[in-house]
Amino acid sequence: MQATVTGPDGQPRCGWCGIAEEFFGYHDTEWGFPVDDDTRLFEKLCLESFQSGLSWRTILNKRDNFRVAFKHFEISKVAKFIDKDVARLLDDPGIVRHRGKIEAVINNAKRAIELQKEAGSLAHYFWQFEPEELAQPEMVSSSAVSEKISKDLKKRGWKFVGPTTVYSFMQAMGLVNDHLPECSIRGAVDSARRAFTRP
Description:
Order of helices and strands: EEHHHHHHHHHHH
Shape: globular
Largest sheet: 2 strands, antiparallel
Strand order of the largest sheet: 1-2
CATH architecture of the domain at 36-174: Orthogonal Bundle
Keywords: Metal-binding, Zinc
Protein name: DNA-3-methyladenine glycosylase I
GO molecular function, one term: metal ion binding
CATH class of the domain at 36-174: Mainly Alpha
CATH topology of the domain at 36-174: Endonuclease III, domain 1
Structural class: mainly alpha
GO biological process, one term: base-excision repair
InterPro entries: Adenine_glyco (IPR005019), DNA-3mA_glycosylase (IPR052891), DNA_glycosylase (IPR011257)
Number of helices: 11
């Protein structure tokens, strides 16, 4: 969806904002802005994994519930989840109750701790894959970089991190700026990325 839509302030936004009113706030203040906090990065990747096969609207509307259910995605706490936590989550109507995805988050928390020890931080690991900036957003569902990250994470034992999920994560955490050239927020994201100190 490449056409823009008009935002609440009368300015153009990326077309996907038109799907749901609540997308505007997320689009304007989060999507594409660079992130270097490991907890936020882990949350974003987990939520993108939960989104697989579903609409982002479903995940965004349940995000606060996910945060409570998964201890605000504090990696060390999630890594200690056991079978009774899985049962609790499967009984929680506030989140997406998918056993495979729930167990993947717990597994990935353990793998994240391993990666932090090796790379220093998740931020340092992911930002090393930053691609050269394109004049135009790619508007694709995956890329050579997302395939490379996906392959490496899977080799490290991560789950539910296919190339499409990883590319959505790259867009969300600012590894790429996929706001349309006509989008009124693209400039703010460009500025944030220029001012951002890479880990």
